[in-house]
Structure formats: C-alpha cells, structure tokens
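Researcher: Dear colleague, please comment on this protein.
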Amino acid sequence: MEELRIQICGRLAIALGDLVVDESRLGNRQARRLWTYLVLNRARAIGRDELAGAVWGDEQPEAWDGAISALASRLRSGLRPIATVEPAFDIERGTGRYALAIPQGAFVDHERARAALHRAELAYRQLDISGTWTEARVALQISLRGLLPGDETAWVVGQRRLLADSAYRALELIAEADLHRSRPEDAATEARQLVELDPVRETGYRTLMRALVARGDRGEAARVMEECRANLRQIASLAPSPETELLYREIRRA
C-alpha cells in the first residue's frame, strides 16, 4: 500500500500514490478550516461546539450544529477517492464529536516539520552538524509555507505564528551548521534572511556578524551592527542587548 500523505502547510492536499485530492475538492473556506483543525488535533475526538468555534469563531450561524454536519459531509465527499482505497482513512463521527482517523505511518507535513526541528535541535546538541543541517532544512521548507493563507481566524493566525517561529529557529540552526562546516558565505545569506524575517530579533544580526568575520569582512560586520542599532531604535525603541554589544566589541578588538 502506498503511503498516505497529508499537507496542510501551504496549499491543502491529500495524496495516496497517484490519487490526489487538492483543496478545491474540500469545499469552501469553512470546510478547509474544519479539515485543518481536524488534522492538527487528530490525536483526539473533538466536540461539535469546539469545532463550531474553530470554523466560525464568534460568528456562528444559528443552525451551526447542522452546518457542522454539512461541512463534515462535504469533506467526506471530497476525500472519498482516497477513503475508498484506504479504509483506515475517515472522518469518524461519534456522539457529539468528530475525529480524523488516518492509517499508521501516514505522513502529515505539519507533524514532520515539528519532528524535524526537534531532531535538528538534538543533533546540534550532539555536534552532529550534518544531521542538524538536514533536519533543519526539512523543518524550514515546510514551515515557510504557512497555514491557510489569507485566513485571519484567531487560531489560524496563532498556528501561523508558531510556524514562523519554527522557520526562524530552523534557519538559525542551518546558519550555525554552515558556520561549523566553514561555509561562511552560506551562513551570511541565511543570517540575512533571519534579519529580514524578524528585524528586531538580535540573533540574526549576531549570526550575520559572525559569518562576515569568518569570511574576513569585519567592515561589513560593523555596518551590520549599525543596522541592528537603527532597526531596534526605529521599530521597537530598544537598544542592542549586552550580548550583541559584547560580540561587537570582540569583533573590534580582534
């Protein structure tokens, strides 16, 4: 049997071998929210009232109970091409609850990203630089896709922030791995991406300065420090932390 693959980061998709169900088969925005919430919480059965909150927030329709049933039926219909082949794949309905059943060993991209980041952290602590780079790259590629683009529902925005944090940390690890592998040019590129992702988080500037020094460009490292000071002042009315200032002093003394 082919591996079932579920993608909720970026464009929604479910695949089993050559069978592919994309998000256009899943229904409207509310149905896509329901599907994504079921995947994210597949370890448990979810009450209908909780699902209604996830789908509509504070703007639940009066007949929300029937509307949830209709959305679940729409999802089942869209998933039928795969569920017919893989009977362990289904949206199960109990008394007042729904749960997503998927076969053991199925690939879920969101879970793979989380596991990859965990493995990258562990590999880094064990000085397994190759393992750090490989797993962090997987976490980065998935996390950067985001979740339900354009949907501003509170829990979706929250999950999107978590993915953004995962992407940032994965990129930090990739840059550190490249510094360990004596690839300062790559590390500088990745560190610049860190600064672009979050111009008030100082780790990006520190990594960029270290990478520039490693490639012999202390003048550019000094300019990065000035950029750090300016961005922190203009965006957040902050000054660089003692850790960042200490690194800069060490660079100037070297």
